[in-house]
Amino acid sequence: MRGHLEEGRRWIGESLAQAGQVPAHLRARALSGGGALAVAQGDLECAQAWYEEALALSRGIGDKHGIAEALSELGLVAHFRSEHGRSAALHEEVLLLYRGLGDERGVADGFIWLARLARERGDYDQATQLSEESLRAYQKLGDDRGIAESLDDQGTIGRDRGEYARARELYERSLQLRRRLGDKQGVAYCLDKLGLVAQFEGEYGRARELYEESLGLRRDIGDRWGIASSLSKLGDVARHLGDLAQAVALQEESLAMRRGLGDKWGAALSLYSRAEYEREQASLDQAAALYAKSLRLFHQLAYRWWESAGIASVACLASLQGKWTDAARLYAAAQALGEASSIVLPAADRAERDLQLARVRAAIGCRMFLAAWTEGQALGVDQAVQQALSVAEASAVSQSAIEAAVRVADAASLSPRQREIAQPVAKGWTNREIATALGASPRTADTHVGRLLRRLGLRSREQIAEWLARNPI
Question: What b/e string do you get for 137-160 counting C-beta neighbours within 10 Å, with b at 16 or more?
Answer without folding.
Answer: bbeeeebbebbbbbbbbbbbbbbb
